[in-house]
Protein 1
Amino acid sequence: MLDFVLCDDNANVLTKLEKMLEAIFISKNFDAQIVLSTTQPDEFINFIKNHNVNVIFLDIDLKSKISGLDLADMIRKKDKNVYIIFTTGHLEYGLMAYKYKTFDYIPKPFTKERLEDTLVRLFEDISGNETKFVRLDNNKTIIKQDSIQYIQKEGMKVIFHTDTRNYETYNSFKKILPQLPEQFIQCHKSYIVNTQKITDIDISNNTIFLGNNEKAKCFIGPKYKNKFMEVFNYGNFSNNLDSNDNAK
């Protein structure tokens, strides 16, 4: 699911934008949600500092000491991949906006048709970017690869365990693995693990721990153990495991 954040100094404009976007999400069956809609730059900044988001709609002139361009500069220092879309009634800002790797620039007053065109292109761009996202359900559900902790096969279902929630789909590891970058390794007939999320390994019990949640774990199968440990011994995991000394 893609998380959207909106910031505009005009509450009426924000309400209109929210309704238009949500209508497009429904009509196009886009897996997306608005997680914050605010007129306050400070609230926007605090939220962005503490949450990872995918798409940001920013008004350029926020009628405050900080502008949308200032916010975009801050965003880019934290996240080079988030999609930034500017909305403004000041056409002269257009060229300045693209300095911040802007996906689109929508003049006000905007229409549903113009927003829909932008969102369709955005989802097409994401769907074509195999290095950053995994696509499920005919591309309608999109998961950021770096949010996936491990993938579990349970009967005919495949469950993606991410930092925030689980996603279930009917698929096979054979089809999923080609979508994934090299840090994802099948460690068991029923598990694929994101090695960058590993925090500890209990070799004696063939158990892999992920994140700070004790329940977030998967297992190493006998058939896959040699290959898995070969990768581990060459230090191809994240900084969470600096050496073999960290393994139990």
Note: The first strand starts at residue 2 and ends at 7.
Protein 2
Amino acid sequence: MLQNDDIQPVYGRGGTVEAWIDDEVVFDMCGRWVAFLDDQAVYNFKGKLLGFYEGGWFRDQKGDAVSFTTDADENGPVKPVCDSPPLPPALDCPPAPATPHQLPVSPMPGLDWSIQSWGEFLMASGTMSLY
């Protein structure tokens, strides 16, 4: 298990913490790895494109915001009032990521919230079935 002071909360549209990000890895609330970042793209560990991470915003493949980090810029929808984050969990050591299946082209960032929840964002490509 890893414990790092650089872990950041990932907030959903309701202002609650839905995940954690540390270095280039996204973890669920229990500290299990669920996705990784490669440049601006977000992939599951099988190499399938989930969406994008730009300017502190996680975006679906259409460019709409799914969630955000505390350093999210103003190129997105109105951010909710955020809850105080809980203590971060101990993080599992992630495996080596697979080679991405496709080289993505990031869409124009939208100013709308996605119709996808955080869980749907991850499950759309089968990430949640990893454990």
Note: The CA atoms of residues 30 and 89 lie 6 Å apart.
Protein 3
Amino acid sequence: MEKTFVMLKPGVLQRRIAGELLNRFERKGLKIVALKLLRLSREMAEAHYAEHRGRDFYEKLVEYTLSGPVIAVVLEGEDAIAVVRRITGPTNLLEAPAGTIRGDYAARTRLNIVHASDSPASAEREIALFFRPEEFFPWEDGNRDWF
């Protein structure tokens, strides 16, 4: 089973839609195996977005992520990365169709409400940045045949 990382950004908590977004992932059969509410340090936010350093939107992205608590989640399932990316929709809001998280909830592209790993390498790096091994809670899915 593949694991992926999702971060629900401060706008999700401010708008009180965390449960709705987590429910979308669960309804697709993905399992939550790690979850925490936290306020990122500048160092952690900069490490998370290191690949964007030097781009015009980098500082605003970091500042937005630091503006309030975030929810960090590790989801597990078949093709979890691709499934989560499909559920979240494209980063550019003009391309995000209705029915995706970004298409339904996001108001500005650069102040996006959700981050989702885009590759196995990114997922591995981001999961390791946010979670220690003892913070994972694998569990057997007795409802596996339902999905």
Note: Residues 2-132 form a domain with the Alpha-Beta Plaits fold (CATH 3.30.70.141).
Protein 4
Amino acid sequence: MWKRDEAVRPASQPPAAPQPPAPVAAAVSGPRPETSHQMEKDIVNIGKSVVIKGELNGSEDLTIEGHVEGTIQLKENVLTIGANGRIKAQVFAKSVIVLGEVTGNVTASDKVDIRDNGSVDGDIIAPRVAIAEGAHFRGSVDMQRKGGPGQPAKPAEPKPQAQPQRVGA
């Protein structure tokens, strides 16, 4: 039985590693380390041999390395399209990270990030958009902000200033 405990002790060594971060986490707050562990558990992977056709909904962060056709809705979570991921879908997520290929419109409430060798063919709607050098993008970008879009839309209306140009002509 001591040998079993010793076998368990190496498995408990990783918790020994979190002990040093525990004082740091304790300085921030005690529940956060538990929350981060839960968040690590809430990441789902779709392997590169998996093909999904239809509607994909979820309430967990998702990494796709396979093929998805249809609609993807992860409104409160992060969607990562891996380097092997091939998506032909309308995408709705909190944040979208593209390392593979996306064909379809992408809507994010937080950010869309197209990384090196990532490809998006479609329109992007998000308050923040990042396109890395070496990435491919074909479409339009609408950087709407919560609460702010109404105000910037009104300053965009100063196209009537074009009318004074008519007067000056």
Note: Helices lie at 2-16, 21-28, 31-41, 150-156, 162-168.
